[in-house]
Every structure is written in C-alpha cells, then in structure tokens.
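Deviation from plan, reported transparently: adenosine monophosphate complex.
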Amino acid sequence: MFDTKMLSSDEGSIIEAVRLLKNGEVVGIPTETVYGLGANALDESAVRKIFKAKGRPADNPLIVHICDMEMIKPLVTHIPELAYRCAENFWAGPLTMILPKADIIPDVTSGGLDTVGIRMPSHKTAKEVIKKCGFPIAAPSANLSGSPSPTTAEHVLNDMNGRIPAIINGGFSAVGVESTVISFENDAIRILRPGFISAEDLSEITQNIIIDKGVVEKVSNRSVVRSPGMKYKHYAPKADITIIDSSLEAFKAYIAKHKTQDCVCMAFDESDCDGLGVKTVCYGNTDEQQAHLLFDKLRELDVIGAKKVYARCPNKKGVGLAVYNRLLRAAAFQVVTLE
Ligand code: AMP
Ligand code: MG
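Because the crystal trials were delayed, the predicted structure below was used instead.
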C-alpha cells in the first residue's frame, strides 16, 4: 500500500494538486462545507476512481463544482430564472442546484440521471484549484461511503490513506455539513437535502418552498427518490445512537433512568449532563456550532469506542434542520420523543 500525500494549501501544493487532477487522478480538496474527493467531472475514467475510492453506489450522483458563471453554461441545457436568482444571492456558497444536464456530463457523474447538481464553492483553495484546472470538478464528500463526512484533512486521511494520491490541507471546514441541495418545479424550490442555506434563507427568493419528505423521513432502499443519496445509510459511526427529542429536564430524567456504565451522552454542553455521571461528548449550543462540529464529534464517538449513545435533539428549523437530517441518518432514525 502507498501513503497518501498530505499537501498544504500553498502555491506549490496547489500546482501539484492541479497536475494530479489534470492527469485524471482523485485529490482530497477542502471546501467550506466538508472535504470533497475531487476529479475532472468530464472525464469518465477519473470519475470512476472517485466511486472506487469511496465505495460509493453507482446510482448516487456527484455534485459538480465550478468557479464562475461562465463554467456552468456548457454543463446544463437550461437555467430557470429562479436558479439565476439563487446564484446571485447564495453563490459562491453552500448551495447545490439540480439542473437538466448537457451531454458533456458523463452518465457516471450524474449517477445515470438526466440532471446534474452544480455548486460554486466559496472556499479560497477550492476556487483556486478549479480555476487552475479549467474544468469542473466532481466531488462527493471525501469519506468512505456510509461514514461521517470529513471536516478536517486528518478525517480524510483516516478514510482515504492508500486510496488516493493526495489531500490538500485547508483546515477545519467552516460550515461543517454538506451543501443544501435544491431543485426547481414551476415557481417552487424543493429542498432535497437541507444545509447551511436554510429554507428561511431561500424564502427571500420565493415563498413557494417545498421541503422534500425524504429530509426527515426514512426512504426505502428500493424506492426511486429525487435525491438518491438520501436512501443510503449515512454519516454513521459504529455506535448505536438514539436521539432524545425532549426538553433538557426530560432528557436528564431519561438518561438517569436508562444509563449504563459505558453509555455516552451527545449533549449540547457539558452542563446538560451535570450530576448524571456519564461520559459526555458535546456538539455545541447554537445551530451553526452544531453544524460545524457534528461530523467531528460523530467520528470522536468511534475514537473513544462508544457503543450506546444518547443524543440531544437539534432544532428542526433553520440550520438546525440540516443538523437534524444528518443526525437522524447517523442514528438510523431511532428517536425517542418525550413530553
Ligand atoms: P455528497 O456528494 O456526498 O455530498 O452527495 C451529493 C448528494 O447530492 C447525492 O447523494 C444526491 O442526494 C444529491 N444529488 C447530486 N446530484 C443530484 C441530482 N442530479 N439529482 C438529485 N440529487 C442529486
Ligand atoms: Mg456524502
């Protein structure tokens, strides 16, 4: 086995990463959402390497990353008016738009769909890499399929060592959860995957916002879904997680009753578990902090060998909905709701 090279994000490192990408290789790239496993979106054999490195099912499409509005034109056959307005308001940033794909996008990139997800990241290094490559970069999250998404270069190395030639280290991802994925229906915006750009943010563009039911409901592995990634087990550490949807008092009472010697509480704050005598992993007090920390803390559960985890339930509005959507999948939809 070979070792994956950890590059910094200085000029020389970016040139090396760009050389690899131009040669049809896969590189771990920092973005403001999570780290991506990038390859030339228009090169079928390069894109196949992404699926192989991740162990990703072939029908789960990749997001195609661009650095300016010129780059999107040849990739899609039509851009609705609403999409232009979303681009104006939220690009560069953590928003992916599903648009009808042009033939130039290989089927392997779009998971066999006739649409393609496009995003313009705001992370300086990601933008520079795409610009220097001169082609769009397909990039899913840089984790092994099923694991929590990586928010640091070390997370990527843990999953990808010996599977890809290099990773660019760009520090801790600021947002921490993947992009909001939306599609357009007549004059409505449908949220397929919630993210940092919230339903409330999108309502500046139109009041007609539909939150797809797959966002908070389990979709069957066999069913045809609008956003294929939603049907797979996702983001999961080895531990068995149960979300406790309740007030802090009810959460504490539940833990006091059900705790075992080695259970772990995934709390907002240390003080949530005062007096309970249980191991605690904290993921923050605000929606934004929780988004930033969630995947890092899910990985920490594996590091400490957690087996049974009780998690406090995030907000189901704003950025909190993105956190809830990821935690639900990490918990395989196990939720205890208390008054
Ligand atoms: P990841 O790259 O791991 O952040 O996952 C990207 C997710 O975006 C996929 O799993 C899909 O759910 C969604 N996605 C990407 N392209 C499309 C598309 N053409 N249509 C619907 N959903 C898409
Ligand atoms: Mg992913």
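Residues 140-141, 149 surround magnesium ion (ligand 2) (CB under 6 Å). We consider this an acceptable substitute for the interim report.
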